[in-house]
Structures are given as C-alpha cells and as structure tokens.
Write a structure and sequence with these properties.
rod-shaped; 80% helix; mainly alpha; 139 residues
Length: 139
C-alpha cells in the first residue's frame, strides 16, 4: 500500500508539472487583442491603409522594374515587366476589393492608364512614369 501511495503522489506531481509547463507557454505568448474600435472608424482606416502598407511587395517590385525600363526608354521591356502586374494583382485583388473598394478602384485605374500608354506605338515616357508613380503611391 505504501508503494501505491508513492506512485500516486509521484503521478500527481508529474501531472501538475506538465500542466504548469503548458501554462508557462501560454503566458509567454503575447496576447494580440485589438482595442475596441467603432465599426465606422475601422472601415475608414482599412480603406486608407489596406493597399498602402507595403503588404504587396510583388506588386511594388513589378512597378519598380517597369519604371526602371521606362526611364531607360526600353518600352518593350517595360510592357513585358508590367504584364507581370496582372498576374500578381489577380492573387490579391479580391481581398482588396472586399476590404478597401476605393483602393481597389485606384489600382485598377492606375493599371489601365499604364497599360493604355504602353500599348501605344510611341508611348510617352512622362505619361507612363506619371501613371506608374501614381500606381506606386496607391500600392
């Protein structure tokens, strides 16, 4: 009987130690609760920052590469580079459209302006750069 009591006590201590290890792990994990924000404020904030926080490096890279090609006057390369924008945009556009419709519209308009100018037989370097600059600010 004494042996049974020792095993029972040892089991209880082990169980408490294991439960304590799990609690320490939970306590060290930072709590990420967002402060209560009125719904109207949350929507307007997401409108402004959804696209512009640099969450879309692939889009930014395409715009940067296209700008570099345009600055050197290589419009064929610029068009090839900017064609990658549509593929990158397709991956994220639905999420942006639902979270920030105004930002979505701005990106769509910017994309259209760049493509329209690049499709011309003699694209205007200044017009393309201006459209890319605007698009870059939106992203």
């Amino acid at each position: 009987m004494a042996r049974f009591n020792q095993i029972l006590v040892l089991s209880a201590v082990t169980l408490l130690a294991l439960a304590g290890c799990d609690s320490a792990k939970e306590a060290s994990t930072p709590q990420t609760s967002s402060p209560a924000i009125p719904a109207a404020t949350a929507v307007s904030t997401s409108e402004k920052v959804a696209v512009s926080q640099g969450n879309y490096p692939e889009l930014s890279t395409v715009v940067t590469n296209t700008k570099a090609a345009v600055q050197t006057g290589n419009f064929a390369k610029a068009k090839t580079e900017f064609d990658k924008f549509e593929r990158a945009w397709e991956k994220v556009e639905d999420g942006i459209k639902s979270k920030a419709p105004k930002s979505y519209d701005a990106v769509e308009d910017g994309e259209e302006k760049v493509m329209t100018e690049l499709k011309k037989s003699q694209p205007s370097k200044d017009n393309v750069l201006a459209a890319l600059q605007s698009l870059e600010k939106t992203i």
